[in-house]
Every structure is written in C-alpha cells, then in structure tokens.
Amino acid sequence: MNLWRDIKGTLQPFWITLGYLFKKPVTIQYPEEKRTPPPRYRARIVLTRNPDGSERCVACQLCSAACPVNCISMQAAEDADGRRYAAWFRINFSRCIFCGLCTEACPTMAIQTTPDYEICNRDVLKLVHEKDDLLVDGCGKDTEYNFYEHSGIGVVNGRGGNEDEYGPVDPKSLMP
Amino acid sequence: MNDLLISLVLILVKLGLILGVVLTMAAYLVLAERKILGRMQLRYGPNRIGPGGMLQPLCDVIKLLTKEDFVPGRADKWIFLFAPGLTALAALLSFAVVPFSPPLALFGREIPMVVCDLNIGLLYIFGLSSLAVYGVVLGGWASNSKYSLLGAMRGLAQLVSYELALGLALVPVVMSAKSFSLNAIVMAQADWPNLLRHPLAFIIFMISITAESKRTPFDMPEAENEIVAGYHTEYSGMRFGLFFVGEYINLVVIGAMTTVFFLGGWHGPFLPPVVWFILKVLFVAFLFIWARGSMPRPRYDQLMHFGWKVLIPLALLNVVVSGAISLAMNS
Amino acid sequence: MTTALFYILGIILLAATLMCITRRNPVHAVIYLVAGFFALALMFYLLGAPLVAAWEVIVYAGAIMVLFLFIIMMLGLAPQEVPEGPGWQRWLPLALLSASLMACTLLLILEDPAAGQKVGGFYLAPQALGEALFGRYAMAVEMVSFQLLFATIGAYLLGRPLPKGEDQ
Predict the structure, then answer these.
(1) Residue C148 has what pLDDT?
(2) Which of A147, B15, B300, C168 has a CA-to-CA distance to B39 between 20 and 30 Å?
(3) Is the pLDDT of residue A154 over 70?
(4) Under a CB-based contact definition with an 8 Å cutoff, are residues B261 and B202 in contact?
C-alpha cells in the first residue's frame, strides 16, 4: 500500500543515520595523521640527475611549451663540448596545476613529479622555486636512463657511438 | 513594597538564569548539531578549537562579530536592521512561561520555578511564535533581493498554515489539563505523560513544529540549494548571527514546549526535576537534529498540500475524537 | 491609575492608526497597524480579558496582518525607491509609540504584580469565556461558524479550475 510505503520510507532513514552515528568516521585527521600518496602521485616537481650524477635537463623548453599555465621558464646554455643545460630554471608553484604534462613532454626524464604534497606557503614568493630548490640528488622514477647514452651530440660517447645508434650517414654515398 | 521588591529581584534572578542557560544551550546546540550531523555522515565535525571542539561556539561568535555589517544599497535600512532582533527576541521571550521545576521552598517562601505563570501561557507562546514570522518576513522584504523575498514569502505561508495544525494538535492537551497554564499542563501529566494519552496529537505536533521552526525537512524559507539562503541571504555579521542564534534558541524553546506539552515536563523518577526537564529538552533537540540528518526536503507545494489537506483535517478529527473520549470517561 | 493608562493606550492606538493610514509604503503601514494592535491587546488586558488580549495578538497581529503582508509582497505593491531624509526621522513615531507601549506594560505590571488579575474590577477567566461562548451564546457561535463554512465553500467554488473547453 502507498501509505505503508510512505511510512516505511520516512522511518527507514532514521534507522540508517542512527547506525552511522555509531560507526567510526572515515575522516583522516590531517596534520596528525598523514596519508601516504601512491608513488606516481603528482605533487611537487623536481629536476632529477643522471645515474652518473650530472644534470639531466638539456633546456629544450618542451616542458615550458607543454605547460598549460605557463609556470615553467628557463634560460638555455651550452658547455664547451656542446652539452646543453639550463642556466636558470624556474617553476612558479603558485600557478602550477600539477597536471604532469611537463613530465610527459620531457625527453630526458629530467622533470618529474613527486608525492610530496605539502608545499603550501603563506608567502607567495616562496612558492617560486629556482633551480637550486628544484634539483635533487637521484634519478627519480627511472634509475637507468641517461639521455646522452642513447642520443644527442657525442657528449658521453662519440657521434653515433651509442649502442642503439647508427653512425653518421654519408649523404654523398648511395649505399645504405 | 518590600514584598514587591523581593518578587522583582526573584524575577530578575530567574530571568538572568534562564537567559544564561538558554543562550549557552543554544550556542552548544549549534556545536552538537554540527558534530552529530558530522558523525551521521561519517565525519567528525568541528574538533579543532578547544578539547573536542568545545570552544567552537566562542570562535563563531568572534568571527561573526568581526565581520562587516553590510546593508544592501536599496534595502529598507531600518527594517533591515531591526528584523533579526525580532526573531531572536520572540524566541527568547517564549521562555518566560515555561515551568522547569516544581515550586521551590527557599527562605520560607514558595518560589514558583517559572518566570511568570500566565493562565494563558499556551496562548502567549502562540502569540510569540506568530510574531516571530515578522522577523523573517520583514527581513526578507527589506533586503530588496529576489531570493530574500521568495524565502520570506515561503516562510510566511508555511508558518501561518502550520500554526493552525500546531494549535489544533494542542487542543487535546488543553482539554486534558483543563487549563492554558503551562504549570497546570505539567501538573496534569503527573501519572501519564500526554505522549501516551494523545499519540496522534504528538505526531501532528512534532511535524508542525518542525515546519513552524523552519527546521530541516521543512526548511524551504532558507532552502540553500534553491534560493541561496532564503530570507537571510543579504545578511552578514552578527545580524545573520542573530537569525542563526534565534533559530537555535527556538530549538531549545520547542524542546521545552514538547517536554511541557507531551513528555510530562519535569516529572520523572530518581533524578531531580530540573535535570529531568533539561534531559527531556536535550532529547527533543536530538530528535530534531536526527531528523535533519535523515530527511530530504520536500517540494514547497507538497508541504502546503500536506499541511492543509492532511495535517489539519487529521488534527480536527483528533480534537473531536479525544473530546468525545474524555466526555465519555467523565460521565 | 488604570483610567489614565486606558486613555494613554487610546492615544497610542489612535496615533498608530493615523500613522498607518498616512503611510505611502504599505509595509510601513502594516508595521504601524501591528503597533496599534499591541495597544489594543494591552487595552483588553487592562479591561480584565487576558484571553481576548492574547487572541488579538495571535489572530490579528500574528495571522491577519501577516496575510496582508503576503498579499503586499506577492503583488509587489511596496514601492522600491528609497525615500529621502535620514531613516531615524521616519521611524521616530514608531519608536515613540513602542516606547510608550513598553512604559504602559511596565506600569500595568507594577500596578498588579500578580500578572494583572482583577484590573478594573473585572476579570474574565479563559474558562468563563469558554463557558459563555459554548453555553449561553452557543447558537450565535454555531451560526457564525456555519457562515465561515459557507464562505470557505464559496471561495473554493470560485477558485476551482474550470472544466476543459469552458470559458469564463
């Protein structure tokens, strides 16, 4: 009957909420209890190093171009051996939306996201991280990869000397 | 003259006591509501300030007092400024006739534990609750905003229509006590609370007092997901706070009213009467908070339909039936 | 004392009603009228009829004036422009009226600390009123209530939805 359904529908929620009243809340009490985010969590952005300890970043500007909020800026520079690096590198975390597009754009796996989510600050200028703040010791997610061992202009090995590389092609010859 | 002075001082002391207790209760009901609702939704509710959040009401008051007291540009300024006070005042004044304990013998005098035992106490409460509408209506109208106006009109129609059902639900109570005085109504429930004697009246009373106090299943006047905040959309600072506090004082008042009319007032075994009274008030307040955690808001026309076509006929029938029964029992 | 109070209340009532009928803004008029109803309720109380005083407040101030406000608000009768001049000047009469009402209430309480029983040598208990209404004047009450019933049915007939295909 309709009336019976109405009465039941009125009383049932009371029973359910009373049950919930005595359950343990699911809230995580943040400053005291902290959640461990998964390793691939996208929070604070860092610049990682090669396995041999040198900087990975080659200042190709791809991350800066990929960034939807334009929070990454840098100045490229070159060593005597033609090895590129960033003269300065700046990420404005007050603008960053932690989308992770920069890490996908990076060809050298230099720029990476970390699970460190506690980067709030009352002073907005402290959220602008310079290269010193960004650069970490360690390889981050990939411990093997070194861009110049696979590609690039002979910095580690000579030109075309990397193991998965051909040597330079002679354009004047027709031989393959 | 001396006698008059003593009774005046007594009245003032009782007033101060009641004001203090009611305001503290109202402040902590806000906290209790937030915490209980939180637990019902598997959250903790406020627990940062003081042990277990016990100082939260204080901080809320400080926050409200330090906010800007804003008056919209084309508002009717003076009505806008006075309206919140009306709501809080009407709620506070209702407590004057509520008896919270049997008369106390002190220094050889019999002191009635009620500020003023009017012989028309029930009508006094009715009068005040019908005046409380003015705070809502004038506040909503004076804000000169469409949401406020809509909320005010909803509140007005809802309060006027549910007051009828409320009054009719209380007729059997008055019949069995043979008096409008709240003290006499409590006295008449010495052996049986009215809850058992008039269960249907109790249900009608609870539903209509929820609508009358604009509490959640029937909070259309401030339905926050339809009309922003209803009649107090434009209010800020402590004037909003007055509306808010008035609402929670009202919760204490309706707890006291339900206790006096249906739960037997201060009657109860073992514990002192005042404790029984406060316990019953808190229990009723919990019922209202519980309902807020459990019930969705009906549509506005459903509310009016229910009030006029279901509750009022039912209440009239209840009056006739319980009148007939009490006549048959007497003869 | 009570005679003086009676005349003071009469003056307040007249003044409030006069203010009510001279207001441009209907909402302001309603506020003055409500003040007048309070004076009237106090007068009934003074005459020894607390029940009638309570009904005056509940029915007239609490229900009928509220319905007036509802109609005013629903039809948008209140003017939207803000009048010139400082607000306190416009509301001074109301403040004076309310203050004198308060003073009268206080005087009434001080006159008789036992909540105004037997003021004016006559006191109408709620029970006596009920017995008079439903005993001596039962016929008249029933006739009035039937008239109200007819009015309700008439209003329903006027307001019912027209059957389909039928014009005014």
Answers:
(1) 92
(2) B300
(3) no
(4) no
Are there at least 3 beta-carbon pairs closer than 8 Å between A and B? yes
d(CA A17, CA A35): 27
pLDDT over threshold 80, residue A82:
no
Question: Helix, strand or coil for residue C69?
Answer: helix
Tally of CA atoms within 13 A in the half-sphere of B47 that contains its CB: 15
Q: Is residue C167 part of a domain?
A: no
Contact C151, C145 (CB under 8 A): no
Distance CA B252, CA B26 (A): 7
- C114 touching chain B per CB within 8 A: no
pLDDT at C82 over 60: no
Mutate to test the interface with A, among B49, B200, B294, B302 (most CBs of A within 10 A): B294
Tokens in use for C93? 């009469």
Each residue of B113-161: pLDDT tens digit? 666 666 777 888 888 888 888 888 888 888 888 888 888 888 888 888 8
Number of domains in chain A: 1
Mark whether C90 and C136 lie in a shared domain: no
d(CA B1, CA B212): 42
The answer to whether B162 contacts chain C (CB < 8 Å) is: no
* pLDDT at residue C144 in the model: 92
Q: Is B163 in contact with B129 (CB distance < 8 Å)?
A: yes
Q: Are A139 and A145 in contact (CB under 8 A)?
A: yes
Model pLDDT, residue C87: 62
Q: Please report, for the domain that includes residue A112, its CATH number.
A: 3.30.70.3270
pLDDT for res C113: 43
Same domain, C67 and C106: yes
Least confident piece of the model among B32-36, B103-107, B157-161: B103-107
Whether residues C70 and B134 touch (CB distance < 8 A) is answered with: no
- Residue A158's φ and ψ, nearest 5 degrees, are -70, 175
Q: Distance between CA A60 and CA A151 in Å, rounded? A: 14
Q: Per mean pLDDT, which range of B95-104, B106-115, B145-154 is the poorest?
A: B106-115
Taking the model in full, what pTM does it have? 0.77
B291 at A interface, C-beta within 8 A: yes
Residues from chain A contacting residue B38 (CB–CB below 8 Å): 25
Q: Are residues C134 and C80 in the same domain?
A: no
* pLDDT tens digits along B259-316: 888 887 777 777 777 788 888 888 888 988 888 888 888 888 888 888 888 888 888 8
Q: Specify the number of domains making up chain C.
A: 2
Residues counted in chain B: 331
User: What would the 3-class secondary structure string for chain B be?
Assistant: CHHHHHHHHHHHHHHHHHHHHHHHHHHHHHHHHHHHHHHHCCCCCCCCCCHHHCCHHHHHHHHHHHCCCCCCCCCCHHHHHHHHHHHHHHHHHHHHHCCCCCCEEECCEEECCCCCCCCCHHHHHHHHHHHHHHHHHHHHHHCCCHHHHHHHHHHHHHHHHHHHHHHHHHHHHHHHHCCCCHHHHHHCCCCCCHHHHCHHHHHHHHHHHHHHCCCHHHCHHHCCCCCCCHHHCCCCHHHHHHHHHHHHHHHHHHHHHHHHHCCCCCCCCCCCHHHHHHHHHHHHHHHHHHHHHHCCCCCHHHHHHHHHHHHHHHHHHHHHHHHHHHHHHHC
b/e string for B76-93 if b means 16 or more Cβ within 10 A?
A: bbbbbbbbbebbbbbbbb
Interface residue C129 vs chain B (CB under 8 A): no
Q: How far apart are CA A153 and CA C50, in angstroms?
A: 104
Same domain, C147 and C84: no
The shortest CB-CB distance from A21 to any of B40, B44, B295 is to B40
